[in-house]
Amino acid sequence: MEKKLKALTHLYVTVFMSGFASFIVVPAITDVTMFALCPGADECSLAIYLSGFQQAVIGVGTALMMPLIGNLSDQYGRKSLLTLPMTLSIIPFAVLACSRTTNYFYAYYVLKTLTSMICEGSLNCLALAYLADNISDSQRASAFGILSGITSGAFVCATLAARFLSTGSTFQVATFASMLAVVYMRIFLEESIPDRDDSLTQPILKESEDVIQKDGNSLPRKMPVFKKIPSLGDIICLLKSSPSFSQAAVVAFFYNLAEGGMISSLMYYLKARFHFNKNQFADLMLIGGIIATASQLFIMPLLVSPVGDGKLLSLGLLVSCIQAILHSLAWSPSVPYAITALSVVMVFAPPSLRSIVSKQVGATEQGKAQGCISGVSSLANIIAPLIFSPLTALFLSEEAPFHFPGFSILCIAITLGIAFIPSLTIGNAPSNSSDKNSSDCMEV
């Protein structure tokens, strides 16, 4: 038990440092983009369209890569699969750490797009699978909530740092933190590989990645042969493995469609509507992040047992829908700040959804399951900017068919409402993780 707790501590530190590197640049990237593409302007359709296009291309890559990465992690281990995306994520930060001129921005744009096709979502997917390897069903929702809380804590610290750092220093710190995360992970994080001989046994945590114990003797580990990339049919088969898994996939799609819309629209909406800048974005994110961290670390673990992850999922989606409606109707700059208080409930949704998914598959399928849901989420991220970026640009321009700057945000609220409906039927999903592997169609 002590060994597992130590391993999970190293996982949390890795997630924190990597998340810190990713989040510290978020408040600055809108201003960097606007300065490079439309200097001196508060509204820039080119920036909105380029951001939306980037998000869609990244979504295509991650939709293909997440099932593969999750599948391979079940075979070769979580740590081994973490190394590549964490290393690649350093490159775009380093480019803007050198300069934020137009040419450097376009270099960053291309490199960020290419690397994020592999990196986007990989850390979260593999961290969830790592936790599922080493946490029992009854504790899984709380553990996933704590992982989300660690991520939110990284977000808070990064946003606070961004508030006081210059733009150039922000990207330099991001580069250093991402490099430190890779080094720490390679040195301290123990490998976790599910025992493929018996799906009912606990996963293996070991210092060495090259040996296993069998009948008391140390033998070279025979690594499984990579046979194929999971096909669409494989993924569909896994989605059909249980009704709760299928419903969770539907919820994940519409939830991430809405989240993708928020990413591609909200900052540009606030900048055009209330002239928000880097510092105001940082303040807004900081308030929401502090609330989310406290909720996921302290409130959610207390509610999981008496309420259940299914009801927490529905509650989080409902409040997210309400928050989006209030954003779309915002009448003063203080409104976005006030409604961040709703984050205390909104943050229940993602870890509850992942917990439900984790309980529907066997011990050796956690990577496949989390990768599959990440792939569904990435598919939504492909579609989201294609819908919401043009809609946002249209209603922020003078050619809008009617005056409603927040119309695209209202459409996002409707999308969250669609996700809320199937979440009501998931309930407290029964666990299949103690059974024999629930899907044999994605064997590699």
Automatic annotation (TrEMBL):
<feature type="transmembrane region" description="Helical">
    <location>
        <begin position="143"/>
        <end position="165"/>
    </location>
</feature>
<keyword id="KW-0813">Transport</keyword>
<dbReference type="Pfam" id="PF07690">
    <property type="entry name" value="MFS_1"/>
</dbReference>
<feature type="transmembrane region" description="Helical">
    <location>
        <begin position="81"/>
        <end position="102"/>
    </location>
</feature>
<feature type="transmembrane region" description="Helical">
    <location>
        <begin position="337"/>
        <end position="357"/>
    </location>
</feature>
<feature type="transmembrane region" description="Helical">
    <location>
        <begin position="281"/>
        <end position="300"/>
    </location>
</feature>
<feature type="transmembrane region" description="Helical">
    <location>
        <begin position="46"/>
        <end position="69"/>
    </location>
</feature>
<feature type="transmembrane region" description="Helical">
    <location>
        <begin position="378"/>
        <end position="396"/>
    </location>
</feature>
<protein>
    <recommendedName>
        <fullName>Major facilitator superfamily (MFS) profile domain-containing protein</fullName>
    </recommendedName>
</protein>
<keyword id="KW-0812">Transmembrane</keyword>
<feature type="transmembrane region" description="Helical">
    <location>
        <begin position="248"/>
        <end position="269"/>
    </location>
</feature>
<dbReference type="GO" id="GO:0022857">
    <property type="term" value="F:transmembrane transporter activity"/>
</dbReference>
<feature type="transmembrane region" description="Helical">
    <location>
        <begin position="312"/>
        <end position="331"/>
    </location>
</feature>
<dbReference type="InterPro" id="IPR036259">
    <property type="entry name" value="MFS_trans_sf"/>
</dbReference>
<feature type="transmembrane region" description="Helical">
    <location>
        <begin position="108"/>
        <end position="131"/>
    </location>
</feature>
<keyword id="KW-0472">Membrane</keyword>
<feature type="transmembrane region" description="Helical">
    <location>
        <begin position="7"/>
        <end position="26"/>
    </location>
</feature>
<dbReference type="GO" id="GO:0016020">
    <property type="term" value="C:membrane"/>
</dbReference>
<feature type="transmembrane region" description="Helical">
    <location>
        <begin position="402"/>
        <end position="426"/>
    </location>
</feature>
<feature type="domain" description="Major facilitator superfamily (MFS) profile">
    <location>
        <begin position="7"/>
        <end position="426"/>
    </location>
</feature>
<dbReference type="InterPro" id="IPR020846">
    <property type="entry name" value="MFS_dom"/>
</dbReference>
<feature type="transmembrane region" description="Helical">
    <location>
        <begin position="171"/>
        <end position="189"/>
    </location>
</feature>
<keyword id="KW-1133">Transmembrane helix</keyword>
<dbReference type="InterPro" id="IPR011701">
    <property type="entry name" value="MFS"/>
</dbReference>
